[in-house]
Specification:
The protein is of the alpha+beta class. It contains nine helices and five strands. The chain has two domains: 148 residues, no CATH class; 68 residues, no CATH class. 49% of the residues lie in helices and 11% in strands. The chain has a five-stranded antiparallel beta sheet with strand order 1-5-4-3-2.
Length: 238
């Protein structure tokens, strides 16, 4: 008896026909796709909608510990790099599809519906009232947040140094002092120090007063404020 080789695709098709018709299969697949699309639209809607949710019921044993952060840790990063930690509803850039997928995966894994999303990003990434390396969080209670997704390019390593003068009034003042000292060293004394007692100190104080005044005028007239004050504020002019 001659045995023919088996075509696995034909065998699969034969088995499928025994169990259900092609129309039924297509209808089932279409139903699954439609349900998935509806679920993704629901997630997108929650990301764009203002929420008062302060905690989500997640199963602790299923969480990745390297994605759990306390509000104090978030605050320090925002202050150091002059970033804001605000509701996803005022984030003006597009949330990537990968983030939507991760939210749906987390919801299914924990059998819950997530809400109250927060994002860490530069001020220009938000629709502030009167953009670099966003991070998407969800609150899990007791001032802890769970990191869901990070996208974009890595933040400039020089950013922390560049925004250091704006961390608080102390750093602002120290920066003005350093600039004043540098300017004082650049001013040629010649015979000035011989004819005017404490000439270097006078030049330094004059430079400090001028530099501090110019810095402060530009900073506050532009509606800016210190990093420690703005990291959770949704207003532009503060």
């Amino acid at each position: 008896m001659l045995l023919h080789k088996v075509n696995l695709q034909e065998e699969l098709l034969s088995e499928r026909k025994k169990r259900q018709s092609e129309a039924a299969i297509l209808a089932q697949v279409q139903s699954i796709l439609a349900e998935n699309e509806w679920e993704r639209e629901m997630v997108t809607d929650k990301l764009q909608r203002k929420s008062s949710t302060i905690s989500n019921a997640l199963q602790f044993d299923l969480l990745e510990t390297d994605k759990i952060f306390h509000i104090d840790q978030i605050r320090k990063i925002c202050v150091d790099y002059r970033l804001r930690f605000l509701d996803s509803s005022i984030f003006k850039n597009e949330i990537p599809e990968e983030a939507i997928t991760k939210i749906r995966s987390l919801e299914k894994q924990h059998q819950t519906s997530l809400d109250g999303f927060k994002i860490i990003a530069p001020s220009k990434a938000f629709h502030l009232l009167n953009y670099d390396d966003p991070l998407l969080f969800v609150p899990i209670g007791n001032d802890y947040y769970y990191l869901i997704h990070q996208w974009g390019t890595e933040i400039n390593p020089w950013r922390k140094l560049m925004v250091l003068p704006f961390k608080n009034l102390g750093y602002f003042t120290v920066t003005a002092i350093l600039f004043s000292a540098l300017l004082t060293m650049l001013v040629p004394e010649n015979n000035l120090s011989k004819s005017v007692p404490m000439a270097s100190l006078i030049v330094f104080l004059f430079a400090f007063k001028s530099i501090f005044a110019v810095f402060a005028y530009y900073f506050f007239m532009m509606g800016k404020n210190f990093n420690e004050e703005i990291w959770k504020r949704k207003y532009y002019n503060n």
